[in-house]
Amino acid sequence: MDQDLMSYLKEQFQEIRQRSERMEGRLEHVEGQVGGLREEVGGLREESREGIRHAHVLLEDVRGNVRLLAEGVASVDERMGKLDGDLRQKLEELWNLVATPFRGLETRVTLLEEAEDRRHRDIMEVMRKRFGSRLGT
Asked: In angstroms, rounded to a whole number, what is the distance separating the alpha carbons of residues 38 and 46?
């Protein structure tokens, strides 16, 4: 082989070797970055899992509170229904106690009003209304 060719090939191999070494250096750098990204992603996954677990715990707490609130509302509704029934019964009893004397009182007042009305009316007017034209109006 020719000395020039040998020298040229040597230079080319050396250049290829240098490029290969640079590429390996870059590849190691990229691999380092990928490894760092994997660690970050792993950390984010763990943080996400913890966040999700925490959200589930809070959600269960809220569900429990809603259940307690619903039971309380049902209990209050039941008590209100009972109180409503008791109140209606008491009002009916009170009405029955008061209604009878007031009916008698109303009758007495009506009789008194009619008597007062009769006392102030003209007797001739009463007679005309009652017997009409027979009195010779």
From this structure: 12
pLDDT tens, position by position, 23-70: 998 988 888 898 888 888 888 889 999 999 999 999 999 999 999 999
Burial class (CB in 10 A: 0-12, 13-18, 19+), 128: middle
When computed from its CA atoms, the radius of gyration of the chain, rounded to whole angstroms, is 55
Q: What is the pTM of this model?
A: 0.43
**Minimal CA–CA distance to 121: which of 108, 110, 132, 130?**
130
Beta carbons of 135 and 128 less than 8 angstroms apart: yes
Q: DSSP state, 121?
A: S
The per-residue pLDDT of the chain, averaged, comes to 86
Phi, psi at residue 90, to the nearest 5°?
A: -65, -40
Rounded Cα–Cα distance for residues 97 and 91 (Å):
10
For the chain, what are the domain ranges?
A: 3-135
